[in-house]
Input
Amino acid sequence: MRNGYSESPEPGETEPLVSEEVVGNVSKLCVVPPGYRGPPRRGHLIFDANFESGNLGRVDYITEIEYDVFIRPDTCNPRFRVWFYFTVENVKADQRVIFNIVNFSKTKSLYREGMSPVVRSTSRQKWQRVPGKNVFYYKCPDHRKNYVMSFAFQFDREDDVYEFAYCYPYPNKRLTNWIAKQDDRNLDYFYADVLCETVQQRNLDIITITSPENIQPQKQKRVIFITARVHPGESPASYVCEGLMEYLLEDTPEAKALRDHIVFKFIPMLNPDGVALGNYRCSLMGFDLNRHWTDPSRWAHPTLEATKALLLEYNDNPCVDLDFYIDIHAHSTLMNGFMYGNVYDDNERFERQAIFPKLLCNNAEDFSLAFTSFNKDAVKAGTGRRFLGSCLSPRSNCYTLEVSFYSYTTQSSQVIPYTVDGYIGLGRNVAKTFLNYYQLTPQPIPPTVPTVATGVNKSKLKAHLRDEVLMVHRQRANSNKSSQLGGEQTSSKNSPPEPIYKPAYHELPNSNSTTSLQSYIKQLRSKMARELSQKQVPPTKEMMCTPNSTISVPQTRSHLMHSGLSAQQAPAISPPVLQKQRRTPTEEQQDQTVSSPLSGRNSLQPGRRLETSKHANYFINPQNPDNAL
Output
């Protein structure tokens, strides 16, 4: 790559070997045919993932219409390669291409059930799913028989930049803008604060929604604590959480009844670093945070440690009844929304925790009671649901709320793909279910009741909430000092309180330098190893894994070569009409043995073209260009 575009080697030079390492996102990468020299032309696609939540590690040119796309693994953890999010520009009108996502780390996927990637462009900002008839998920003989997802697409506007993603993205920026929008409304029942900072010094936002009377320090209160996005690639969880919060902020009798009766605490994004980096499951340092609730490290898992400390503080506070802890996730292999709960020896507690899922099933048609289960798997011992269920008071109900990446099935067996509004709707239904659970009766709101806070009252109430957070921070800081000095008490009443809870390591590398990032992570892991050795705790294999481990990938080739699909036969994109295509046991068996690259759900035999649409363009109807599909 020279002067912004690819060149063949000069005379006397040797062709550089193609690196098989996928360690960073591509940035404005122009992919041109082998041997091409000169500036890029229109139709030479430019790929980019150098933005928040972006993920694209490598692109290989196969033919004029086909590209192999490699997912960048989670930072410091090559096991997870699922989330992708990238842009494509410099396209030609009516240009048809096939993208092959070739290095998924999971074989069992909703792509086998009809799921498809999502797409939008600069002139059409609403996310849409690529039509399922143009998406193929199959075992590829040219990639060690790993599963590959191929999808065909036709660009229609040359000036647009197109975005493709695994599911509807929800980056940190959207949450920040949403909080700022609510702050501008100056409501007396909405409070946002920063609980702590991440390893990369991003804010961990904590949101409180309740009536002002419930914030008084000595008032007896019920608390519902909700978290989301501990796994950064599970973006539907953020939309569910946003829908729940928006329902509670409405000026309706139902929302007011909930605010008057309950204190709602939200941590909408528990892994901000992972979200910003475009990881699927891990934090910056490669940790699956939802396996470290038992003993989180203050510097390696600061968001988890601070959240756990606050929850335990509520549990020990006699003025607080911590009724619910709900952790929101997205599921990559199952349909619908559903819940996981715990198994308890106390029959009364076990039966009580089954009430909420049953009520939610009555309120939400996309919630499945059949998929809801209660278990105590040893593998899940470090999750928030399992750990908090074992250490919180018996009055606390701890759940994991899951929602499908793809769709839900109605009682009439109709498969309906989720949209952004669909995920938000599930969150609203969760809020409505709390009305049923507490048997609250909404009362009409008198027109004289103010909904906007005065500056003096709002500042006093925020000060109470801030004191609550700082108290937890000081306790954890003192506990950390005591452990470092062998338990000796060193705190002084006259010493100034710690202004904000921060991780123990702050020096950040240049985000544009891969070498400095690797060095930075090595320093962090060395620090953790020293800390563990002082405590005489041997480091685990996960803690000491080599950062940015390489991914071995085979040589490139044309995936569709076996089917006889030529450049002139590239499929056009049809309007987004999705129907579930059920698979028979015979088809499932064939899928495990067939070597055709487009076998299974949408098989493509040699000499047969993909089904094309009478409409050439994906986004607009050529008969009526002003009417977007």
About this structure: Residues 282 and 288 are 5 Å apart (CA to CA). Confidence is low (pLDDT under 50) at residues 1-20, 484-514, 536-629. The first helix runs from residue 172 to 185. The longest strand covers residues 320-331.
